Amino acid sequence: MTTDSLARFGATRSDIRARHALLTPESHEWVTQPDWPGAELAVLVSPDMGARLSLSLVRCPEDAAAHPAAPGLARFVFCLEGGAALSDGTGLAPESFAFLPPGCGLGLDIPAGSRLAVFEWRFLPRGEVPGPLAGSLAGVPARALRGDDWLKVQKMLPSDPAFDFEVNVMSFRPGASLAYVETHFMEHGLLMLDGGGVYRLDGLWYPVQAGDAIWMGPHVPQWFGALGRTPSRYLICKNYNRSPMARA
Ligand code: UGY
Ligand code: MN
């Protein structure tokens, strides 16, 4: 039986621990929020679990909108399905993205049937706060990670020190894996876009597939190996360009 059919007996692949979490679709709780009229959100990662970022999935049973993020927060929107329009008129098609810095005042109009992934975090300025930007993943160069061309990274945000966050898409050919178990002070929010494999988090190995989300807290040992016959891809964010001592 699948986890979905076992859900009625209280089973789930979701596993929420002190320093990491796996959030799988059968356990998503969809809520409404006054700042997202018409939309439903599954908030998968939030400060309430110990994270310093949030990752939400947004779905729209009807035409919906998003008000600008709360003061001090940056927002990154990745369109999974359908579309969205920023309040300055910029359109987002599937696999397009927008970075909305704090104070930019930009909200969203989101047509019925659209799905988005949204990261938010408290922005740590260094010099002038960068302006909003938008683009399409297809226009972002894919670079081999540490010389392994079976594992490519697309960085959607500039590496400029004014940016305090990376949001990347990592693509693995079947059988490719991270070269070693990473341990770093930066944390991650992650959404599997395609394929699947095995994710090691702390001392546990989890089977993961498209639609699953992960939170990796600071210093959590992490590794991924792609399985199956089709490529795997994930959307991943990471605090960047800032000392851990800059984050009170
Ligand atoms: O950028 C990263 O730290 C990335 N390689 N981590 C990961 O995929 N878990
Ligand atoms: Mn990492």
List descriptors.
binds (2S)-amino(carbamoylamino)ethanoic acid; 21 strands; Jelly Rolls; 248 residues; binds manganese (II) ion; 2 domains; 6-stranded antiparallel β-sheet; mainly beta
Description:
The model has no long low-confidence stretch (mean pLDDT 97). The strands form four sheets. The protein has an eight-stranded antiparallel beta sheet with strand order 1-2-19-16-21-15-14-13, with no helix packed on it. It has a six-stranded antiparallel beta sheet with strand order 3-4-11-6-9-12, with no helix packed on it. A four-stranded antiparallel beta sheet has the order 5-10-7-8, with no helix packed on it. The protein is 2% helix and 45% strand. Strand 3 and strand 4 form a beta hairpin. It has 248 residues and is an all-beta fold. It has two domains: 31-123, Jelly Rolls, CATH 2.60.120.10; 138-239, Jelly Rolls. The chain has one helix at residues 3-6, and strands spanning 15-16, 20-23, 40-45, 53-59, 64-66, 73-81, 84-86, 91-92, 96-100, 108-110, 115-122, 133-136, 143-145, 148-155, 165-172, 188-194, 196-201, 204-209, 213-216, 222-226, 232-239. (2S)-amino(carbamoylamino)ethanoic acid binds next to strand 20 and strand 21.
